[in-house]
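Continuing the series of single-chain predictions for the mutant panel. This is the parent chain; the variants come on the following pages.
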Amino acid sequence: MTLLPVADALKTIIDAISPTQVETVSLDRANGRLLAADITATFDQPPFDGSAMDGYALNADDGAKGTALNVVGISAAGEAFDGTLSAGQCTRIYTGAPMPKGANAVIMQEKITRQGDQITLNDDVIEKQNVRDKGNDFASGDVLIGSGTKLSPFHVALAAAANQAHMQLRKNPTLTLVATGDELVPPGSTLKKDQIIASNGFGLTPLFTHFGANVKDGGIIKDDRKTLKSELKRLLDEEPDILVTTGGASVGDRDYVKEVLEVLGVNLSFWKIAVRPGKPLMFGTLGKTTIFGLPGNPVSALVTGTVFVVPAIKAKLGQSPEHMIVQLPLTADMASNGPRQHYRRAKLTKNANGTLAVDPHMQSDSAHLTSLSASDCFVVQKPLEENKGFGEMVDVLMMPWVVG
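Parent structure:
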């Protein structure tokens, strides 16, 4: 069977994805979510010319050093001076307060001498000095936050300043994650002969959650056709946006996942990918549900979850599915690659001159988690790519917790 290239597999996945629906969410629950409609300013901020300093508001025509001015009032935030300044007059003014009529500059309080109701300027003043213009932050009609933005605390603060109590956000996709295998037991178990700890879900769940999926633990299903069929049907009947299985995707005598999914009516688009690690990877659809069958080996599951499932989650949320790929120099020689695209474990580091570089791990065992845990990126080696030497530039896929 011909192995499908990674690029073709990703195109097939993205072409099958429809974005989730839009919901109205209160501002206090918006952080980290995906904006589905532009946030546009409906007023000017600030809504008036205001002072950027504590000091004295005056007309710059009276702003020559040594000039004496009469203090005729106070302008404070929430309580503007109700009047118009004439020549030779000024007002006490505080940060954020509206500029009085007739004033176009503010001198800092540290740069005057005051005696009673009169000040003397100890410095020259020019027009607009220490004045925040109306609309300086944003003006009515400005697009403040664009649709598709993943909202940070800074975005939410801006939306609040724009008087947006609610926002239109993409619904987070629902994702059910299930492990298969007779040998698997949960962490904390007393291991019996031939058993291993089921670790994949504890890496995949935070990975998928980071990108906005609401992950449900579907548990561990034994390698039994009848049990697999019953449990997978139950999970598919719940119609999650995405179903991810780990294990049972290869060609062993007890690898039943592909067979059972097809019996349940899943339309499988592909089964084997020209990727390393993770060749036995399935993708299909059933109704509204997108289905991934990932390998069971821990590194293979986490690599393919990153490379293939994460773009699907991003596409569900209306985001670009592209990975962040940067070019960095190698800190060690790297052997040539075989016919499958290799996502080689690697660590970001710095060269002697302080610039960013990448240190590739030589370990390639698909069950070797310690090398994966020591990685924060993958060097992407194209099929049949020749060996690279120290200092040569390579493609690097950054991990989500490094780049967000």
